[in-house]
Amino acid sequence: MTKKLTDTIVKDLPTPSKGNKITYDGEVKGFGCRVTAAGARAFILNYRTRTGRERRFTIGAYPDWKTAAAREEAKELKKRVDRGEDPMAEVEADRHAKNVADLCDRYIEEHLQKKRASSQRDDKAMIQRFIKQEGDNAVKLEPKLKHMKVAEVTFSDIDGLHRAITRRGSPYQANRVLALLSKMFGLAIRWQWRADNPCTGVERNQEEKRHRYLSPAELAALTTALAAHKDTQAANIVRMLLLTGARRGEVEAAKWDQFDLTDGVWTKPGSTTKQKTLHRVPLSAPARQLLSELREEAEAKAKKKGSPLSEYVFPGRGGKGHRQEIKKDWRELCIAAGLVGTETVTDAKGKEKMVVTPNARIHDLRHTYASVLASAGLSLPIIGALLGHSQPATTARYSHLMDDPLRQATERVGAIVMPKGQGAEIRQIKGGA
Questions:
Q1: In this predicted model, what pLDDT tens digit does every residue of 407-430 receive, in sequence order?
Q2: Which sequence ranges are marked TM in the entry (predicted)?
């Protein structure tokens, strides 16, 4: 007769020479203790589903589970089986449930290609650094989302990661990661991986609109730094940004067939512009000169190597694709030009340290280009057309820079209306109506 299992009996069960051996309980049918050749002990329950399928459910390991508690758990499981449930099916479903790493992979595969090349790079970098926390640039933070089940990620998990990134001294970056996660979990709802978005309600860090323009002295310092920079390709990308006011992604992905150097026109395809429409802009004489020199240099190199000319103005390393990143170069240029500041950040161990950081962004070159146009008195519609703005409100940020030329214009009128040394005598303006 089979004995009722006790802790003493389970503890003294012999270890098989190979495989495993199950000793069953004399009270609850199908309940027993499995002992492996390594000596590990675990409580199990054998049962048969309504369809006749034989199943084995592992309740838990001894001594984490005491025999009496495991027996009671077996009784509860048997009640569920009697109701037509299959406890193992739930375990298997959970085992195969999608985790956050799976969500990242599907997002990259199915959604990322809909975004601009620069946005794709930014999203991939955030996924690697902050969400999957993989690679050389990974930031080790808690909570680690990568292996968490998509359906089990909570508001607290997302809020905790957002605050952890913020504490590193990267409040804007924290907001970008939050926005990316919100989009990904929104897609998870569409894909029926979960029912709600855990990012909803997470308070974003306050962001101030930056209107950073380089002063003439800063421009001069940057020009000097560009001349001395060892990576001439990166330096020329920055020069093109300054000369055209284009976005970084537009310059990096520029192809030779987009340029008419005879008439001095750059036709940007919609695939590279933020507004996703074709944008045709004139090139200044210095910009045309730079491009002509780059073309001559590229043709000479191609001829020397006996290889075809790259379709890209700024080809990638090894001739594959186009140049995609100049962040390291920009940092070096800012340090060389004195465009830096200091800030306190918290490292992965929670220690604060002072670091030197650029106080100008690559995108500020675009603002600088627009500020020069505005200060020269060009109208906002013209500036917007040159920058490729689809909304007038976007260009309106530069309106205050038009104060000086407007003041000069109104002073001219004032000089006619009220000459120096006279009262407010109205004078006839020749040619006026």
A1: 555 455 445 445 544 444 434 444
A2: none
- 28 and 143: one domain? no
Four-residue CA torsion sign, 323, 327, 332, 336: positive
CA distance 220 to 117: 31
* Joined tokens for residue 367: 């603002």
Burial of residue 260, with CB atoms counted within 10 A of its CB: 0-12 exposed, 13-18 middle, 19 or more buried: middle
Evaluate whether 65 touches 43 at the Cβ level (below 8 Å): yes
Kindly state whether residue 34 falls inside one of the protein's structural domains: yes
Does the pLDDT at position 299 exceed 60? yes
Residues 301 and 360 placed together within one structural domain of the fold: yes
**CB neighbourhood size of 39 (10 A):** 9
To 10 degrees, the CA torsion angle through 402, 405, 406, 412?
A: 180
pLDDT digits (tens, 9 = 90+) for 162-214: 999 998 878 889 999 999 999 999 999 888 888 889 999 999 999 877 678 88
CA 115, CA 325: separation in Å to the nearest integer? 17
User: Per-residue pLDDT tens for 66-86?
Assistant: 999 999 999 999 999 999 999
Residues 423, 409 share a domain: yes
- Pair of tokens at residue 165: 């990134």
Query: Do 222 and 287 fall into the same domain?
Result: yes
User: What residue numbers bound the domain in which 383 lies?
Assistant: 213-315+325-433
What values do phi and psi take at 160, rounded to 5? -65, -40
**Token pair 């990242």 in the structure block, residue:** 104
Q: How many CB atoms lie within 10 A of CB 234?
A: 21
Burial of 405 (0-12, 13-18, 19+ CB in 10 A): middle
Phi, psi of 259 (to 5 degrees): -110, 135
pLDDT of residue 62: 95
Q: What is the per-residue pLDDT for 297?
A: 95
* 230 inside domain: yes
Structural domain tally of the chain? 3
Kindly report the pTM of this predicted structure. 0.56
Q: Is residue 108 part of a domain?
A: yes
Percentage of the chain exceeding pLDDT 90: 52
- Total Cβ atoms within 10 A of residue 182: 16
Note whether 280 and 289 are within 8 A (CB). Answer: no
What is the residue-wise DSSP string for 64-130? TS-HHHHHHHHHHHHHHHHTT--HHHHHHHHHT--BHHHHHHHHHHHTGGGS-HHHHHHHHHHIIII
